[in-house]
TrEMBL record:
It comes from Plantibacter flavus. The keyword Flavoprotein applies. It comes from the Bacteria. The lineage of its organism: Bacteria, Bacillati, Actinomycetota, Actinomycetes, Micrococcales. The keyword Glycosyltransferase does not apply. SUPFAM superfamilies: FAD-binding/transporter-associated domain-like, FAD-linked oxidases, C-terminal domain. Residues 14-184 form the FAD-binding PCMH-type domain. InterPro entries: ALO_C (IPR007173), FAD-bd_PCMH (IPR016166), FAD-bd_PCMH-like_sf (IPR036318), FAD-bd_PCMH_sub1 (IPR016167), FAD-bd_PCMH_sub2 (IPR016169), FAD-linked_Oxase-like_C (IPR016164), FAD_lactone_oxidase-like (IPR010031), Oxid_FAD_bind_N (IPR006094). Keywords: FAD, Flavoprotein, Oxidoreductase. One of its GO terms (cellular component) is membrane. This is L-gulonolactone oxidase.
């Protein structure tokens, strides 16, 4: 029996006291623990890095921490595919792929998550031609409620892959993931401030014209902080940021100074607009070229809470404009920026981009601030526009509301009924978003 201890996620929005806490180091150990939990009538859940803001990974019975189940299993050099153990952290994958000259096609801006956690919650980056991380999955092996291994790939149970690749942890315990990689590549990054009112009318055209585009907007300012990345061959010359300049921008200013500014805004909300204008001037004006993973990802040490919604791409400008107007109308003082990204349509059953090209709007609040009123109001706007909430980020939707948002929702629920009729892998969050 593992030790009993408290568990909390990174954002401190969820806390649990599992009956048992286990750290399996092999697939066989996961199978044994699942069978033992089933025999004892205890629900069992795997957790990755705890980077979800929702309760999707909360384990009321047996908690499996999969850090010891990490690393490279095998490489298919001919097809540029790699199989990784489920607990492998995204930030470790570049080191594992480098000897083979490979890279993941796209990443989000945070790489602390485990690969299984990232795909299971729908983690994504940006780019009109690129899907979320789960769209890179070409094979999954998981432990079922009976403690057996179920593999889904092109040869075995291929019809299940669109469900298993982004399964919310509701169908079983993922133990291995096979990713379709690409030859290593370089990104030319341009990060610069632009007038927001000039950017918005051409937002969709801008996003379509480049490989990767996103922008941040600090409320109470007139500037969009844009990030544009162009893909280059892996042997292209690089001109990375100088270490001192990178430390000043990403550590001292974007995290250290910004943390002080956020804390100041908590005790004196009236100064938030001035604080945001200062933050606006401190970050976001540089150009460099580096390996893809060093450009995609950034260090985030200022703690926050987040809600993100996916809307049909054509509604993205409207969604942003309505949120901008909402903040002004309500007189709120919002210190954290809004992030806007895009993604290609995919065929995964519960992907936020399932069946449609997608625009994403993410709203944040400093973790010492109450996000409730702000997030609820934004959610109402996004729901009206056909929005789908990110599974790992805060939202208030339930199964009755989500069923109409996903054409294959009922198929997923039916598969869950077949694979886990006793809800061995269930918890309160899954009961809310999928039904009991």
């Amino acid at each position: 029996m593992g030790k009993t201890t408290a568990w909390t996620n990174w954002a401190r929005t969820e806390r649990a006291w599992p009956v048992r806490f286990e750290r399996p180091d092999s697939v066989g150990a996961v199978q044994r623990l699942v069978r033992t939990a089933a025999g004892a009538g205890l629900p069992i859940k795997a957790v990755g890095a705890g980077h979800s803001f929702t309760g999707i990974a909360v384990a009321p019975g047996v908690l499996l921490e999969l850090d010891a189940l990490s690393g490279l299993v095998r490489v298919d050099r001919e097809r540029n595919r790699v199989t990784l153990r489920a607990g492998t952290r995204l930030h470790d994958i570049p080191r594992l792929l480098e000897p083979f000259g490979l890279a993941m096609p796209n990443l989000g801006d945070i790489d602390r998550q485990s690969v299984a956690g990232a795909i299971s919650t729908g983690t994504h980056g940006t780019g009109m031609a690129f899907g979320g991380i789960a769209t890179q999955v070409v094979g999954v092996t998981m432990v079922t409620a009976e403690g057996e291994l179920l593999t889904s790939d092109a040869e075995q149970e291929p019809g299940l892959l669109p469900a298993l690749a982004l399964g919310l942890g509701a169908l079983g315990i993922i133990v291995e993931v096979t990713l379709q990689c690409v030859p290593a590549f370089v990104l030319h990054a341009v990060e610069r401030p632009e007038p927001l009112d000039e950017l918005l009318p051409e937002l969709l055209d801008r996003a379509a014209a480049v490989d990767h585009f996103e922008f941040y907007w600090f409320p109470h300012t007139a500037t969009a902080l844009t990030k544009t990345n162009h893909r280059l061959p892996g042997d292209a010359p690089t001109q990375p940021l100088r270490p001192v300049a990178k430390w000043v921008d990403d550590t001292l200013l974007a995290n250290g100074v910004y943390r002080v500014l956020c804390n100041t805004g908590v005790v004196a909300p009236a100064i938030v607009p001035r604080v945001n204008r200062l933050a606006d001037r401190l970050v976001g004006d540089r150009e460099f070229t580096d390996r893809s993973t060093r450009v995609f990802t950034t260090s985030r040490t200022v703690r926050f809470v987040e809600m993100e919604y996916a809307v049909p791409l054509e509604h993205l400008p409207t969604a942003f404009a309505r949120i901008r107007a909402l903040i002004e109308e309500r007189g709120w003082r919002i210190s954290f920026p809004i992030e806007v990204r895009v993604a290609a349509a995919d065929e995964l059953w519960l992907s936020t981009a399932s069946g449609r090209a997608t625009g994403y709007v993410a709203v944040h609040r400093f973790f010492r601030e109450d996000p409730g009123e702000y997030f609820r109001a934004v959610e109402a706007i996004m729901t009206e526009l056909g929005g789908r909430p990110h599974w790992g980020k805060l939202h208030g939707r339930d199964a009755s509301s989500l069923r109409g948002a996903y054409p294959r929702f009922d198929e997923f629920v039916s598969l869950r009924d077949r694979l886990d009729p006793g809800r061995l892998f269930g918890n309160r969050y899954l009961a809310r978003v999928l039904g009991e």
